[in-house]
Amino acid sequence: MRLVYKFSILVVFQVCASAINLEPLPDFESQCETRCPLQNQTEDGHGDVGCGPECKIKQCARGCELWETALETSCQVVCNGTQELLPLKELYCVMGCNDAVNRYFHKLRELIGTPLPPALVADTLTATSLSLEWDGPRFANISYLVQWRYEEIADTWQYCRNQSWGPHSTVLVENLQPYTKYRFRIALLLSPHHSEPIVSEPSLVISTLPGGAPA
Fold it and tell me: Does the keyword Lyase apply (predicted)?
């Protein structure tokens, strides 16, 4: 069984005063609402007892209005509490909500693109620790987490643990394995409940120094 070593890190990122506040653009809701009548074009009129065309459009528009609240939970929750099986009219609410949420995330990805990779800070490399610096974009309402993987094993990316934020754009990584090759990257979490994170380019391969006393 391959051992997976866990290491602790101290993540210290600068929070710039000029950080862009990604408040939702005012046209997300209106763009969503313009699509609500189009949903009826693909319906055959069967199975819609209790929610006709006007009901569908109204429920869809309601979902468009609730999309910001859904970022903290889900469209299903904001449209119909926590029920697993949605009544038909709530289904159209969820459809509208999902449309607006997807537009929001699409816009964020356009604005952010692919961030630059973190880089090794000079004179910080040891057998079991190193420091990284990252000069990526700063956005309000987005979480930034560090990921790592072994280079020679081609392992999956894993999140670093014990992260804390401070006044400098540096990351202290500790409890590494001596003479081991790693890569690191930054993951931007757009929302705690939606969407895959945006990830930076991976760092160059960084090999820790040999451990033990010199020969």
Answer: no
